Amino acid sequence: MTGVEGVEIINLPKIPDLRGNLSIVEEEKQIPFKIERVYWIYDVPGGQVRGGHAFREQQEMIIALSGSFDVVIDDGTTIKTFSLNRSYYGLLIPAKLWRQMQNFSTNSLAMVLSSTHFNEKDYIRDYDEFLIYQRSNEE
Ligand code: TYD
Description:
Blueprint: E1 8-11, E2 14-15, E3 22-23, E4 37-41, E5 50-55, E6 60-66, E7 69-74, E8 79-84, E9 89-93, E10 98-102, E11 109-114, E12 123-124, H1 127-138
Antiparallel strand pairs: 1-9, 2-3, 4-11, 5-10, 5-12, 6-9, 6-11, 7-8, 7-10
Bound molecules: thymidine-5'-diphosphate.
Thymidine-5'-diphosphate (TYD) binds near residues 39, 50, 51 and 118.
């Protein structure tokens, strides 16, 4: 059973250079799963919130390629906020956690590396259903 303690910010490699920095993420190195899908969120109007759901199976890594935003993780008992404000931070999120993204800065760009292809059935979008799901996983 993974709770918020299973969520971590990985410091991705950063190669500093006077010409500009370079960072790297490789599957099964900094990221413990096979990457099946990449998507990104951008042009988020001020004050908007993304996410607000959990995944049954999908694991992911979220990187703020540009700008900054917060990712709020909730395991049904504990809520923790992770601020992504460096391009070399990779937030690793196991499955079965409620997550929300908020406080997007202007021109922020969120890249999500996902362990699964898109499957709407993997989503839990109702918070009460999520709590019931969490309790049933604890038993
Ligand atoms: P959703 O995952 O709910 O967005 P967020 O969690 O960032 O707020 O996805 C928004 C819409 O986009 C929803 O109708 C599903 C669709 N979608 C796809 O078709 N494929 C995808 O890979 C993703 C991530 C979303």
